[in-house]
Amino acid sequence: MPIASLGAGVLLTAVGPVGAIAALSAIMLTTAIAATISPAIRRSNPFPGTLDAAPDHTPPAPPAPRDRLPLDPATRPPG
After folding, report:
1. Where is the region Disordered (predicted)?
2. Is 11 exposed, middle or buried (0-12, 13-18, 19+ CB in 10 A)?
3. pLDDT one-digit tens code per residue, 28-76
4. Fewer Cβ atoms within 10 Å of its own Cβ: the N or the C terminal residue of the chain?
5. pTM beyond cutoff 0.85
6. CB 37 within 8 Å of CB 44
């Protein structure tokens, strides 16, 4: 980590704050694209136990609309 801080300081001194942010953003974008394209990451197995412990994030089904009556008059609710 100290090497990264030293590199950021040298970059700030060499190209200024706007140039340093642009250079670091370009490095991060390149890393993200390389990680997305990499077959080793795309086909990796999940960590053991992570799928079992993951919460279910499926939203509940919406309630049935009350303005529609059933087609069969015998199954209509009273009232």
Report:
1. 44-79
2. middle
3. 999 999 999 998 887 777 777 666 655 666 777 777 666 665 556 666 6
4. C
5. no
6. no
